[in-house]
Design a protein that fits this description.
about 160 residues, 8-stranded antiparallel sheet, globular, alpha+beta, 2 helices, two-stranded antiparallel sheet, about 35% strand
Length: about 160
């Protein structure tokens, strides 16, 4: 009887250690999925929904570029805006849309990139059923950073998500 009790206690101890190691591995895997930090929640009126920005490089005089990681909750999006020096988006996770004024929206998803010519009015953001994360590269900062315009209306956004 004592042998069975000792074996049972030993088995439970091994099981508990194994479960704790599994939890640690799962947490490590989840953190490994984040390529870059989520950053700070956007609190201005240039976005609809919740978004976060982590700037890596601001107006740098050597490279004349700003670079940031932008994370959108499902349904979140930028206002219409343009960049005097252009913009490049590198999608690192999720699914969303990019649309230039007067043109149909384009589906963008992990692995895609978008080249936005200077002074092209556009918006980008997450699909209604998915988050979206992208790296935003703004070259030629000496020409200006961003010119914000009106919000993308729910009607405009819903038309893209049909």
């Amino acid at each position: 009887m004592k042998t069975i009790l000792k074996l049972s206690v030993m088995f439970l101890s091994v099981l508990l250690v194994a479960c704790n190691n599994m939890k640690t591995e799962t947490a490590k895997e989840q953190n490994a999925e984040l390529v870059f930090p989520k950053g700070n929640k956007v609190t201005n009126n240039n976005f609809t929904g919740s978004a976060w920005v982590q700037m890596f490089m601001t107006n740098d005089s050597t490279y004349n570029t700003s670079i940031g990681n932008v994370t959108f909750e499902p349904g979140a999006r930028t206002n219409w805006h343009k960049h005097p020096g252009g913009q490049i988006l590198l999608v690192t996770d999720g699914k969303g849309y990019y649309q230039e004024k007067g043109k149909p929206a384009q589906l963008i998803q992990k692995g895609d990139f978008v080249r936005i010519p200077p002074d092209t009015e556009h918006w980008h953001g997450a699909a209604s059923g998915s988050g979206l994360t992208h790296i935003a590269i703004n070259p030629n900062i000496d020409k200006g950073s961003v010119v914000w315009s009106q919000p993308v209306t729910d009607e405009e956004y819903n038309k893209v998500n049909e």
